[in-house]
Design goal:
By secondary structure, this protein is an alpha+beta fold. The protein has a single domain, classed as 3-Layer(aba) Sandwich (Protein Transport Mog1p, Chain A), CATH 3.40.1000.10. It is 30% helix and 29% strand. It contains 5 helices and 9 strands. The protein has a 7-stranded antiparallel sheet with strand order 2-3-4-8-7-6-5, with helices on both faces. A two-stranded antiparallel ribbon has the order 1-9. The chain is globular.
């Protein structure tokens, strides 16, 4: 009998609370505030590996104590689970972000990584036959690397976004250097980015 009364009291209490909630909703007006988005915030560039993404692996190669010359104006950011190093360069008109990532093995292969980068600047995928005319070469302190230069448009604003990517394959790992951001900022920072890549060294520990 006591248990039945408790259940009955509980049901009444719930009904009262629901009634108060509904009446409160009728009295109060919900206001939604919209915050404008930047054309190219740093968040756009951070860890966007959603398509054809071999970099989603949590495994990380153990680089041999790398060193490089950081260009003037680049600000270092904390590393992430995937990125060995991160930098941001800011101008009055926008930003670009630079990341260095090292993974074991071939990390999915060149085609998959080029298509992943193409997706990040809102371009469609290419095939193996397209790689030769899409990918260039660059010489570094570590060896000859593959270079891609991609430009697309943000769907929300039509603003151009540009990505410079370097893929450097080693015997047991693959290095990824990437600059991504507002197209005109990346254009002005292109030489600095390439020099940064070319100064990278592997120093035995």
């Amino acid at each position: 009998m006591r248990r039945a009364l408790c259940h009955s009291a509980y049901a009444v209490s719930v009904a009262i609370l629901l009634t108060l909630a509904v009446s409160g909703c009728n009295r109060e007006k919900i206001v939604v505030y919209r915050v404008p988005k930047d054309d190219w915030p740093v968040a756009h560039a951070q860890n966007n590996h959603s398509t054809n993404a071999p970099l989603t692996s949590t495994a990380k190669a153990a680089p041999a104590n790398p060193s490089w010359t950081v260009p003037a104006g680049w600000v270092e950011l904390p590393p992430t689970q995937l990125a060995l190093a991160r930098f941001v360069v800011s101008e009055p008109v926008g930003q670009a972000q630079i990341t260095v990532t090292v993974l074991p093995g071939n990390a999915g292969g060149l085609l998959a990584n080029v298509n992943r980068w193409r997706a990040q600047v809102y371009l469609g995928p290419i095939t193996e036959a397209d790689l030769e005319r899409t990918v260039g070469k660059i010489k570094t302190q570590i060896g000859t690397a593959s270079l891609v230069d991609l430009t697309g448009s943000l769907p929300e604003t039509g603003r151009q976004v540009r990505l410079l990517g370097v893929v450097l394959e080693q015997s047991d790992s693959t290095w990824f250097f990437k600059m991504i951001g507002q197209a005109d900022v990346v254009a002005r920072q292109k030489d600095a980015f390439l020099q940064f890549v070319q100064t990278t060294r592997l120093n035995p520990q």
